[in-house]
Amino acid sequence: MTDIVTPEFLNELRFLYPQAAPAKYIDRGWYLAAAVAFSSSNYPEALPDTSDEDRRLLVRKMREAIFKSGLLSGYPKVIHALISLCKATPEELRDTESLRCRMKATPLDRLGSREEVAAAGQAYFDLQYGNMAGEIQPMLRSIYPDLEQFTIALGYGYVYAFLEVISSKERSFAIISALIANDTPSQVEWQLTGAIRNGATIVEVRGVREIALRMAMKAGVLKHEVPNI
Description:
Helix content is about 60%, strand content about 0%. By secondary structure, it is mainly α.
């Protein structure tokens, strides 16, 4: 399957993202968008290599972005992708314990703090959907109350609100890439504007959209028109 992802194609994806500062590789968003698009399109063997500066952080960013994308693409695909990434990662760069537990960065890791996790999830949900949040959350509750609880407390609280590895902007890039590669365009427009609220520029968001779009088309998984910003 990796024959669809050649060095030339990876370079094509890289140049779709703004090439100005920052100069450091790990601060550029294109590779996270590409990694999630590969994973969500079920092409985990095409995940980018891990040999670059600040490699430990680079690998952690890729793992965390793929992990977050599982809420959209499904965790069987995430497991498949992370196995491929693990095989390509030198042993000294592999984490041996949960970052969420070790960094104590999420309220869920502290006793009696489930309310704090739900509050963190609610805050991010409201930020992501803006003035549409007041319509979407009641809709989730009406179709299945447990879905609303899962979405706010676990999805947006435990998974998305953890920002010790990737930034809010990078989190948005992972979500956009997963949605496009899963051919679920109805939610893409909200996430594109959500990325702007999380600090991305319009040019960066358009670049991430195009990276995911090219990968999804290459994998043959795209059947619907994808909104733009």
